[in-house]
Amino acid sequence: MTHSFLMIGQSNMAGRGFLKDVPPILDEKIKMLRNGRWQMMAEPINFDRPTSGISLAATFASSWRLFHNQEDDIGLIPCADGGTSLDDWSVEGALFQNAIFQAKAAQKISTLSGILWHQGESDSNGQKHRLYIQKLNHIIQTLRQELNTPDIPLIIGGLGSFLQDGIYGQYFNEHKEVDTALQEFAKDNEHCFFVSTEGLTANPDNIHFDAVSQRKFGIRYFRAFEQKTDILGALADEDHIVEIINNRPLTKNEKNEMLQYQLAMGIITTEEFQTQLAIIH
Amino acid sequence: MTHSFLMIGQSNMAGRGFLKDVPPILDEKIKMLRNGRWQMMAEPINFDRPTSGISLAATFASSWRLFHNQEDDIGLIPCADGGTSLDDWSVEGALFQNAIFQAKAAQKISTLSGILWHQGESDSNGQKHRLYIQKLNHIIQTLRQELNTPDIPLIIGGLGSFLQDGIYGQYFNEHKEVDTALQEFAKDNEHCFFVSTEGLTANPDNIHFDAVSQRKFGIRYFRAFEQKTDILGALADEDHIVEIINNRPLTKNEKNEMLQYQLAMGIITTEEFQTQLAIIH
């Protein structure tokens, strides 16, 4: 059985953490949707742009595996899109329609179990925050309706505190107001929980959470899902959980997958591949 | 106006050429579909697997721009999926349904102008070639019907001559029979043209066309589309055309896009970014 989670929002849900900054996460029981079918997860999961990288979804899924369910598979449905505002996510638009199609495709082969939302940077100027709750409400209500999942948990994260520090800071001068709107939205909506970005840091662009922060953010998103509560600060054990995830020994299938990848990418020769394949255990 | 092309089939349509082996192609008038909207093309276009790389689509599009239409945009719709057989592409299945959804999404914002097909490796054993024409026929007929494009050109490429040379060669022992089926299919179907793989070479895995070959293959696909004819061997001018494509000077927008990418990826500092942005022309 597979339990699936829809990833929607803008670039920080798609993920822009640098791949080189953290160890890869390989787990044969974590899948991602590709062309309507499950494939073993490999980052970047949500390849909306060539800059796509580490997102919060991998450690969300790893935590789910560690603390919630060891038996079943977890599936990630990547539909986030960089630079998009709430108006881009209007229910008649291409992004929303794509998310509905992908989620319905996943529902044929899994139980849709949660929605992960991160968005708001593109609504952080020009007083757009004033309509944020109202617009998000309509999007989420329509989504729940169309997917026939009225009580599905929705986890929403706050915005980075660094947004005004970069060269594009002027575009984010109302990020605190959007953050407040996200918190209020979670307060006023059943089955919706807010996740703090306390202590999370950015890439040099001061727009995107760095890879190390995305790893922590995913664990906070999971904790909110698991405990059905807002997470209002850093978790005392988040670094420890990242460590547990990174130190998980690979299964035979995962080692095999890694070798196949290295062969296909020309990283190892066919001779090295065959030698190593023979000693996998 | 945008003219769009649907990419379907298995890994050699998705593309597995190594990114490091060829210069990148950047062209602001070549787009790719992401979440139902057009984005400037960047390879890998068809990110079905972590091994995805250079496909034939980029030089197909560049040739279209060079020789066919300088005014309009061209849009690529990536729906190919590695390792898939014709049975995986059955019209009730997830891959076909996804391709229909993506193509229809593209039709809302472009004119669907062609279908690029490359598939057959996964039908190259166990006598599957005997039903190849019949199955492909049903897939293509249904596709044309559902997209309401009865006369849309379909370009189909042959299989690599190298398939039996690798460590997985045993799985491809009937690749010549599939190649013959593809040629016959093109002969018997209106608006369908076959493209030869003469002289094209493989990655070390002897399964996937290498990046240099994919660049040539795309030009052959375009020539078949443009001349409405089978391309039965290498083109005398294909290396020259690759050169023209590689030597095309970047526009201001493309240089800007490249700088944004380098900033986002941490390749250049914000200071370098701002210095270089100021001197773009």
Automatic annotation (TrEMBL), chains A, B:
<dbReference type="InterPro" id="IPR036514">
    <property type="entry name" value="SGNH_hydro_sf"/>
</dbReference>
<keyword id="KW-0378">Hydrolase</keyword>
<dbReference type="InterPro" id="IPR005181">
    <property type="entry name" value="SASA"/>
</dbReference>
<feature type="domain" description="Sialate O-acetylesterase">
    <location>
        <begin position="3"/>
        <end position="225"/>
    </location>
</feature>
<protein>
    <submittedName>
        <fullName>Sialate O-acetylesterase</fullName>
    </submittedName>
</protein>
<dbReference type="InterPro" id="IPR052940">
    <property type="entry name" value="Carb_Esterase_6"/>
</dbReference>
<dbReference type="Pfam" id="PF03629">
    <property type="entry name" value="SASA"/>
</dbReference>
